[in-house]
């Protein structure tokens, strides 16, 4: 079997032989910068293109009606005046990248804590933070699909849901004013893949039982989604 010799090969091989990739990156340093940069760029590109493609007046009205439809006409007018295309473009681009950074920082903290039960695990917080970028690689597919949708669309009133084409919100065609929209937007098909990669990585980095690695990998997602669903219902 060909060894994983560089981070670009590792990014490719994580889809076909993740065990070997995680075993390799356990012994390497500074490779995690590559998936971090690639994921950040590929996350930002569809958002940048989207805001340069859409009918911004339509988009602004859509956002106001979806998020502030119960405000008075004057309040909605003031909100509309405060929204401009460059501001929203860069806020969305930077916000998406920062959201990934924060989400992975929290996940790394969780992994660092839950693996303490393995006395042979020597990885620290920064190791787990690098680890999370390798498990985030499936998110690239969402951005690629979004780019394809943008490339073929000729309608400048393209729904922003199209930026998350693997989400349940997109799949089931939920409107932005639906109480289930935010939750459905966060539940994405590649999440299953991410959970699998976390479990595989844990099996390579720790001596924890396989069953426990899958529990650790799936628990945060299931707990957050379950609690979110209860809040919507209640």
Task: Tell me about this structure.
It is a single chain. By secondary structure, the chain is mainly α. The protein has one domain (7-233). It has helices at residues 7-13, 18-25, 33-51, 56-67, 73-82, 85-114, 125-135, 139-152, 168-171, 181-186, 190-205, 210-233. The protein starts with 6 loop residues before the first helix and ends with a helix. The model has no long low-confidence stretch (mean pLDDT 93).
List keywords for this structure.
234 residues; mainly alpha
From N to C, what is the helix and strand string? HHHHHHHHHHHH
For the termini, the CA-CA separation is 53 Å
Give the overall shape, derived from the CA principal axes.
globular
Q: Tell me how many strands there are.
A: 0
Low-confidence stretches: none
Mean pLDDT: 93
The residue fraction in helices comes out at 55-70%
The radius of gyration computed from the alpha-carbon positions, rounded to a whole number of angstroms, is 20 Å
Structural class: mainly alpha
Instruction: Tell me about the largest β-sheet.
Output: none
Helices and strands in order, then pairings?
Layout: H1 7-13, H2 18-25, H3 33-51, H4 56-67, H5 73-82, H6 85-114, H7 125-135, H8 139-152, H9 168-171, H10 181-186, H11 190-205, H12 210-233
Helix pairs in contact: 2-11, 3-6, 3-8, 6-7, 7-11, 11-12
């Amino acid at each position: 079997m060909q060894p994983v010799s560089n981070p670009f090969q590792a990014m490719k091989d994580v889809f076909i032989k993740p065990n070997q990739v995680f075993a390799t990156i356990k012994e390497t340093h500074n490779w995690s910068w590559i998936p971090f940069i690639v994921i950040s760029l590929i996350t930002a590109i569809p958002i940048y293109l989207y805001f340069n493609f859409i009918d911004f007046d339509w988009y602004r009205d859509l956002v106001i009606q979806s998020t502030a439809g119960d405000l008075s006409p004057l309040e909605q007018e003031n909100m509309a005046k405060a929204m401009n295309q460059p501001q929203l473009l860069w806020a969305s681009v930077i916000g998406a990248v920062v959201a990934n950074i924060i989400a992975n920082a929290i996940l790394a903290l969780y992994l660092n804590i839950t693996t303490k039960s393995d006395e042979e695990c020597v990885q620290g917080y920064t190791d787990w933070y690098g680890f999370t970028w390798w498990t985030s690689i499936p998110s690239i597919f969402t951005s690629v699909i979004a780019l394809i949708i943008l490339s073929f669309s000729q309608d400048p009133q393209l729904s922003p849901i199209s930026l998350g084409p693997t989400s349940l919100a997109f799949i089931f065609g939920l409107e932005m004013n639906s109480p289930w929209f935010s939750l459905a937007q966060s539940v994405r098909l590649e999440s299953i893949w991410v959970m699998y990669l976390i479990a595989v990585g844990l099996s390579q980095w720790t001596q924890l039982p396989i069953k426990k690695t899958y529990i650790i990998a799936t628990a945060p997602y299931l707990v957050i989604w379950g609690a979110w669903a209860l809040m919507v219902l209640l």
